[in-house]
Every structure is written in C-alpha cells, then in structure tokens.
Amino acid sequence: MKRRAFLKGSAAAVGGAAALGFDLRSARAELRELKISRTSETRSTCPYCSVSCGVIIHTLGDRAKNVTAAVVHVEGDPDHPINRGTLCPKGAALKDDINNPNRIKRPLVRKPGSDKWEEASWEEAIPRIARLIKDTRDRTFVAKNAVGQTVNRCPGLAWIGGCTDTNEFNYLQWRVITALGVPYRDSQARV
Ligand code: SF4
Questions:
Q1: Which residues contact 139 (CB under 8 A, 6 or more apart)?
Q2: Residues with beta carbon inside 6 Å of ligand 1?
Q3: Which end of the chain has a smaller Cβ tally under 10 Å, C or N?
C-alpha cells in the first residue's frame, strides 16, 4: 500500500469510528502519554552552561536488580525557578549526551610509564586520590612567601567542581579546598 493511500484509509477509519459513536478520547490520550507513562522521574541540572536549568530525566525500568535502566526522555523542569520548564536546543538534546556510548562512567587511571587509560573501581580510585592529594600537599605546601608573609598555599594541586554540583555541594567543596590551601580552583557551571 502506498503512503498516501494508507493515510487516507487511516483518516477514514478514525472518522468512521467517531461516526459510529466510539469515544476515541482515551485512545488519543494514551497515545500522547505513551512515551513517559511508565518512567520514573529524576530531577537534575543541565550540565552545559552556567545558566544551570533544571531538568527532569525520565527513566524506563523499575530499578529492580538485573534491570538495565534506560533514559528515554529529558525535559525542562516546570517547577525550577531558573528555566520554568524551558530548555535551549542544547539542553533539549541532553538525552543523547546521557546515552552516548563514549560517556565515561567509571574512574580512569593512566599508570606511570603507561600510554593508555585503564578503568578502575571507585574502591581503588578513592584511596589512591586521597593518597596523591596528601603526598602532593606535603611536597608542595608553601607556608610563607618570599617576603615572609604567611600564605599557606598548595600550588601543586588544582581542583575543578562538577557541572551539576549544587550550591550546597560547592560550599562544602570550597571549604575542603580552602582548608587544603589549593589556589587553582573553579566550578564549571558555577551553579
Ligand atoms: S538548557 Fe541551555 S541555557 Fe539551560 S543550562 Fe542547559 S545549555 Fe544552558
């Protein structure tokens, strides 16, 4: 059947059903709802720029063991005070960023002398990061500058915050890096 004939036939069938007294409203509502009707909602922040729009991520899957969750839709959060449900084209395409097969989901390590990155578990990565922070701070800490003023800084370290970090998380993060004396610091979205 050609496309034009199919569309004509479909329109005639819908018209015929309505003419026969069938109420098609629930069928149409079901069609509209289908995409997100069985998803769970997670509120988050768009990671792309410092506007930091609120998003709702719709995930299919009942969070049961052995079920792989799938993000099927991302939309603007109507309750968010910054964007009130709107998203720019970049934010509206966020689903493809989340589902991108090249997205890094685990810590990577490039061991001394190696020319490649290898996956590590969080159990391996967190103590290793802590060890390196401590060693680097001990090695590079500067208590006083050249004219004897107290500076208590650690120029061997730099720190960057994640793009979806909240104000509260960034406050805690700033306290930690200030305590360490890290002078080179930033937060990607300054959310
Ligand atoms: S939706 Fe657009 S404007 Fe909003 S945070 Fe994302 S990139 Fe920025």
A1: 156
A2: 46, 48-49, 51-53, 83, 87-88, 90-91
A3: N
Listed in sequence order, the residues at least 6 apart from 93 whose beta carbon sits closer than 8 Å to its beta carbon are none
C-beta atoms surrounding 82 within 10 Å: 14
Strands 108-109 and 118-119 come out as antiparallel
User: In order along the chain (191 residues), what is the average pLDDT of each group of 10 residues?
Assistant: 64 62 73 72 88 91 75 94 96 93 92 94 95 96 96 94 78 91 80 43
Q: How far is the CA of 88 from the centre of ligand 1 (A)?
A: 6
**What integer pLDDT is reported at residue 138 of this predicted model?**
97
Q: In whole angstroms, what is the distance from residue 109 CA to residue 125 CA?
A: 8
The residue whose CA has the least distance to atom 2 of ligand 1 is 88
If one counts every other C-beta atom within 10 angstroms of the C-beta of residue 71, the result is 18
Q: CA 106, 156, 136, 175: dihedral to nearest 10 degrees? A: -70
* The model scores a pTM over 0.70: no
Region(s) of the chain under CATH 3.30.200.210:
38-100
pLDDT computed for residue 191 by the predictor: 43
